[in-house]
Amino acid sequence: MNNKDVQNWIASKKNSPTGTSGRKDLLNDHSSDLRPREKCGIFAVYNYPNPEKTAVITYLGLLALQHRGQESAGIAFNGAAGLQCYKGMGLVDNVFSRSVLDSIRASTILGHIRYSTTGSSEAVNAQPLLARSFDKKGIALAHNGNLTNTRRLHNEQMQEGQIFHTTSDTEILLSYLFRFRREGLVRAVEKAIGIVRGAYAAVAIDEEQVVAFRDPGGYRPLVIGRLGEAYIFASETAALDTVGASFLREVEPGEIVSVGPGGFKSYRTSQQGSKPSLCIFEYVYFARPDSVIDGQSVHMVRKAVGSLLAGRIPVLPDMVIPSPDSGVSAAMGLAEALNLPLEWAVHRNPYLGRTFIAPTQDERELAVRLKFNPITGLIAGKKIAIVDDSLVRGTTARILTSLLRKSGAAEVHLCIASPPYTNPCYYGIDIPVAEELAALDSGFDRLAETIGASSLTFSAPEDLYSALGKDQSRYCTACFSGDY
Ligand code: SF4
User: Fold this and answer.
1) I need a surface site. Which of 96, 128, 418, 454 has the fewest CB within 10 A?
2) Ligand 1 centre distance from Cα of residue 285 (Å)
3) How far apart, in whole angstroms, are the C-alpha atoms of residue 251 and residue 237?
4) Domain ranges of the chain
């Protein structure tokens, strides 16, 4: 499949429910929303033998998952007054102070970091969510994913008199867990997941146990580790590594796992074994490169996809540079395959949070230079291949291409180590709606021209499948295939 074939393939696959009319000129949009964004990360500890240290372990695990959500962070634990939560808006480091962590005594803690795809970004929606009864018994829930039948369930429950405190789909799941709690937490989970639809990797705790579960497709990852006698649950293996835990196994799609006084138990659900649908973009962008998902190193998959770009790029460049930092693994693969130097020719300032810079052209230019600074001596007069993992609105690509041109690059060839996004995601990833996707409609030559690149090369879907080395039917590929 060459670039033309990729383009024809997009045209044949384009069945976006939202169509393409009224698209904004996002290639000229300098908004800060440059990347697709993950919904959430989960980190839970069960039975850590040193209760005054469990909060610190959880904090470290959440820090390791910070890339999956930066809006809010929180923990739930069994304190003197029963289950309670401590959470707030912002990064993990902003929410938890050393004194807060030192004040918590609990051997079991459930942690969460959030990026909202349903429900607004406000403190009330921060997770874990907690429901408690008069007898102080409670359930706390942390969820990564997106439920797809929430409107109907919300209306049904409202008619039954249910009150909701948040605008998060997670509360609907929690409301079912709480409704069925007298049958035990595992049974409550089993009944609740018979009602909700969509993507969920979730962990619930009550006063006695931790229960982890994934939707039957397994869209979002969730792994189990051991840290001495303790069990750890985490969205990614990198968080296990961070706290020194060993990888035990994944929570299987459609599986419910519990650890409590009765030990470690696994429950098959009636939905287990239905079509697997692991999000393929976990490998492309969302997960950390040092994580392993479904037995495969994320870095190695990205590198293999990058190496396959060598057969697609229309010219032999002088050097390969990564888009900082998202294109590093794929750029390594491309440079290795072409036997070319790999240069860190654009420095990214890693210490920038949200910038207050006003939206005037001058200040935008300053903001860009604050974030990215090219090393002119490496670039001037050279044919550059710049590699990124994905192209959504095209904003970052346009900025970097422009910086490379201003630094004297003779040619800038943009290589994207994934197929073009052509459809929105309904399973917990914030990708712009179809109207906003840069790759839609406008042929690649026109898109390259608008970005300012000499050429634009995408990976074909087969490159991803080949790099993964597994049957493509086990992945969700909807945002580039349209197969929901
Ligand atoms: S639509 Fe795309 S981003 Fe969403 S779950 Fe499927 S592969 Fe992942």
Assistant:
1) 454
2) 11
3) 12
4) 3-30+297-470, 40-276
